[in-house]
Design a protein that fits this description.
411 residues; alpha/beta; Rossmann fold; 2 domains; 7-stranded parallel sheet; globular; binds adenosine-5'-diphosphate; binds magnesium ion
Length: 411
């Protein structure tokens, strides 16, 4: 299919061409027509499949289709709620580039920065607002946001929103919008809780599901390294020296883990930057910029800080810690191999993480390729040596029975 077949205005098609998008992705092909037909839509498709444009383009088109020119200041007609500040900025940037040949305006509001400038921009009026839940509610309480003209309401990264505990905020926000509106929900996965949420919020939706595990499998190589916990840093340095090139994202479970690894890698001469929830917004933005323009070639991140962020041309992912939620693994490796490019994901598994690998492999419905040829393998549990002081030497015959029993207890 071609973009020209999607009933999009010439000004949007021009912007799409400037983005060098050749053809719509699968999710765009399937989601854009029903959204243009003003249907409620629920979409699940893996990270990196182009979901943002799948709602941004038809929203812009629907707003362009409005007949009457509007009085100033403009009222907010489309609201996109997304869980993190980084996502807000990214979605805003996407809307702005797709709308650059139109008069439609977009702004983003998110926490961690002062309220005043956001209020000023809102006063001037805007067509499309992208917001994190907390900041949106704050601004609304202060009378700085009017949601009564919303025609199209979008929940992006709904599963992450849920993980981050925004469910009540989302319900509140939805209730501040007019009842009659078009509602769209985008998510990488659709857990049961989202089904429940959407049933109350999104009436008679069209459900579009792009099979998640398979898209991952095609373009992303996945390798598994069993290693003791204490050797993971050495394993990481070894792979960086010998195997992995280019732009790399390393995922760690905790903020402390991120900081520690950043220190070690930079001591070893790597150009590293990092993001996690305890860093200020300005520092996080700078880290992402540095990584995008290659001032840093390695980005170390926690899941929440990194999820959904669109960083192009990532060559490799390292799962320094194995995520305990299998879907998180899919999200993480979705950072590489984006939009059809190939990528590779390295996972380091210590003994306490074996169970996580099992559930990930169940979700993928296949095993991850294990690499045993590296300097820091896990030592198999040693066979128990003869127990001293148990059986006397001259009762050899019966000894084996006794020690077998002992062995059982040891394993
Ligand atoms: P998702 O929300 O599904 O994780 P994004 O919307 O962030 O994915 O898109 C991932 C990347 O794919 C972005 O860099 C985006 O610019 C690019 N992209 C989107 N649509 C297309 C397309 N039709 N052709 C090529 N690249 C695309
Ligand atoms: Mg997205």
């Amino acid at each position: 299919m071609q973009f020209t077949e999607l009933q999009l205005n010439a000004s949007l098609l021009k912007a799409i061409a400037e983005e060098r998008f050749q053809t719509p992705t699968q999710v765009q092909e399937q989601a854009i027509p029903p959204i243009l037909a003003k249907k409620n839509v629920i979409v699940s498709a893996q990270t990196g499949t182009g979901k943002t444009a799948a709602f941004a383009l038809p929203i812009l088109q629907l707003l362009l289709d409005r007949l009457a020119p509007e009085k100033k200041p403009k009222r907010i007609k489309s609201l996109i709620v997304t869980p993190t500040r980084e996502l807000c900025l990214q979605i805003e940037a996407n809307f702005k580039s797709y709308a650059k040949h139109t008069d439609l305006t977009t702004t983003a509001v998110y926490g961690g920065v002062s309220l005043a400038p956001q209020k000023e921009i809102l006063k001037e009026g805007v067509d499309i607002l992208i917001a994190t839940p907390g900041r949106l509610i704050d601004l609304h309480k202060q009378g700085a946001i009017d949601l009564r003209a919303i025609e199209i309401f979008v929940l992006d990264e709904a599963d992450l929103m849920l993980d981050m505990g925004f469910i009540n905020d989302v319900t509140t926000i939805e209730s501040l919008c007019p009842r009659k509106k078009q509602s769209l929900l985008f998510s990488a996965t659709i857990p049961d809780k989202i089904v429940a949420l959407s049933e109350t919020m999104i009436k008679n939706p069209i459900i579009i599901k792009i099979n998640p595990a398979e898209t991952t499998a095609k373009t992303i190589g996945q390798l598994l390294y069993y290693s003791p916990k204490k050797n993971k840093t050495d394993l990481c340095l070894y792979l960086l020296r010998n195997t992995i090139n280019g732009k790399i994202i390393i995922f760690r479970r905790t903020r402390i883990g991120v900081d520690k690894l950043e220190e070690t890698l930079s001591k070893n001469g790597y150009k590293v930057t990092s993001i996690h929830g305890e860093k200020t917004q300005i520092i996080r933005n700078k880290a992402i910029e540095d990584f995008k323009n290659k001032k840093a070639t390695i980005l170390i991140a926690t899941d929440v800080a990194a999820r959904g962020i669109d960083i192009n041309n990532v060559d490799a992912i390292i799962n320094f810690d194995i995520p305990n939620i299998p879907e998180t693994y899919i999200h993480r490796i979705g950072r590489t191999g984006r939009a059809g490019k190939s990528g590779i994901a390295f996972s380091f598994c210590s003994p306490d993480e074996d169970a996580y690998i099992k559930t990930i492999e169940e979700l993928l419905q296949r095993p991850i390729k294990v690499i045993t040829d590296h300097p820091y393998p896990r030592v198999q549990p040693k066979k128990q040596k003869k127990q001293p002081n148990t059986i006397s030497k001259h009762k050899k015959g019966r000894k084996s029975e006794a020690s077998k029993k002992k062995k059982k207890r040891w394993y």
